[in-house]
Amino acid sequence: MAQTSVYGLRYLELTDPPDIAAGTRNLAEDVETELARIDAAVANDTQGRAVRRGERNSDFAPVDNTEKGILRVDGIPIVSGRRYAIMVSPTRVNSIVSGDIWAQRLRLNQTGTATTSSTTVAYAEMNNGRSITLYAEFTATTTGNACSVLLTAQRTSGSGAGTWHVDGTTKTITIVDLGPALGNSGVVL
């Protein structure tokens, strides 16, 4: 009995005894095994899907010149060599002093809990009361469920204390699997 070169599906050759029942059964079992493998791969493929989401429904105060964590998402499943997007819904900080400048950062740790000393993957400053949205992408360098993302806020200029507000009803951080990292194929002009 021979096998196909790609999937190893067994089939009868001209020199095999003419046992159609056994040959058909072997081929059917091989096809079923391969289809089960494909079904499992499709079910486990997270490309284009959110792999983790965190949310906060309340405001946070006070925000001052010390960087403080606002919302952290832990246990993010990542696979080495895949690209991920981190999307943060709009937020704003209102200060008691006009003219203050506020910063928000996204910090990433691929192997443990993100802290205010973890790698910054997105940074934006805003004037008092202005809303901002953060977005970042990263390529996983490890595989596991220990990845963590932290959203922080801090006053970078001025003297007022501020309150970090949720724009809308819920502040969210969503992590999406973008698929295999493709590398840099752009042309610098």
Provide a descriptive summary of the structure in words:
The protein has 189 residues and is mainly beta. The chain has 2 domains: 2-44, no CATH class; 50-180, Jelly Rolls. It has one helix at residues 20-44, and strands spanning 2-3, 10-11, 50-56, 60-63, 68-78, 82-88, 91-95, 101-109, 119-127, 131-132, 135-139, 144-157, 162-166, 171-180. The strands form 4 sheets. It has a 4-stranded antiparallel β-sheet with strand order 3-14-6-11, with no helix packed on it. Strands 4-13-7-10 form a 4-stranded antiparallel β-sheet, with no helix packed on it. It has a 4-stranded antiparallel β-sheet with strand order 5-12-8-9, with no helix packed on it. A hairpin with a 6-residue loop joins strand 1 (2-3) and strand 2 (10-11). The longest helix is centred in the N-terminal third of the chain and has 25 residues, at 20-44. 21% of the residues are buried.
Shape: elongated
- On the 0 to 100 scale, the average pLDDT is 85
- Low-pLDDT runs of 5+ residues are none
Order of helices and strands: EEHEEEEEEEEEEEE
Q: Summarize the amount of helix as a percent range.
A: 10-25%
User: What is the CA-atom radius of gyration, in angstroms?
Assistant: 26 Å
User: Any idea what the CATH architecture of the largest domain is?
Assistant: Sandwich
For the largest beta-sheet, the strand count, sense and barrel status come to: 4 strands, antiparallel
N-to-C terminal Cα separation, in Å? 59 Å
Strand content is: over 45%
Number of domains: 2
Adjacency order of strands in the biggest sheet: 3-14-6-11
- Provide the structure class: mainly beta
Total number of beta strands: 14
Briefly, what CATH class of the largest domain?
Mainly Beta
Individual helix count:
1
